[in-house]
Design brief:
mainly alpha; 1 helix; 0% strand
Length: 70
């Protein structure tokens, strides 16, 4: 086998390994994106609920009259 063919075969093997590694990383990144989207949606919902709660009029709170201390 000529030297150039051997180099090409080694390079081909390395490229296949890199492609497999990239595919695995891409799968992990896609899973991470889905998780982050869920978290962002949850935070948006909680933020909306908090803003609604703040926009409602507060309940009137009146202090009880103090009792005289004996």
């Amino acid at each position: 086998m000529p030297d150039s063919e051997a180099r090409l075969r080694r390079q081909f093997v390395k490229l296949k390994e890199l492609r497999a590694k990239d595919a695995k990383e891409l799968t992990q990144l896609r899973a991470d994106v889905h998780g982050l989207v869920r978290i962002v949606n949850q935070l948006l919902l909680e933020n909306h609920q908090l803003r609604e709660a703040l926009s409602r009029p507060a309940a009137s709170i009146r202090p009880l009259p103090q009792r005289p201390h004996h």
